[in-house]
Amino acid sequence: QVQLVESGGGLVQAGGSLRLSCAASVRIFSISVMGWYRQAPGQQREVVATITSRGSTNYADAVKGRFTISRDSTKSTVYLQMNSLKPEDTAVYYCYAAYDNWGQGTQVTVSS
User: Fold this and answer.
1) How would you classify residue 52: left for phi > 0, otherwise alpha for psi between -120 and 50, otherwise beta?
2) pLDDT, tens digit (0-9, with 9 covering 90-100), for 15-38
3) For the chain, how big is the Rg over CA atoms in Å?
4) Torsion sign (Cα): 62, 77, 108, 111
């Protein structure tokens, strides 16, 4: 079992930036896939971005070119840099680590 703790959420105006952090309780170099998901009110949880142990990344079409996922194995932390934020990015953002390990979520609110 991997414990994940997110931080960095908050309220930001449209066009602004936030960086989310996800600290893991274990060394992440051995975790095959980590990522960020989000869930807006009344919506299903959806994938935002993923990163493999080899550093390969994938992004949802809605965030390509605006969000960047990265991992620092020395700190056992995964990051999500979010730029050019839009009101539709408003959601609770969850960190994920294979397999089926989830953080408690951090709220991101983008005002128009």
Assistant:
1) beta
2) 999 999 999 999 988 899 999 999
3) 13
4) negative
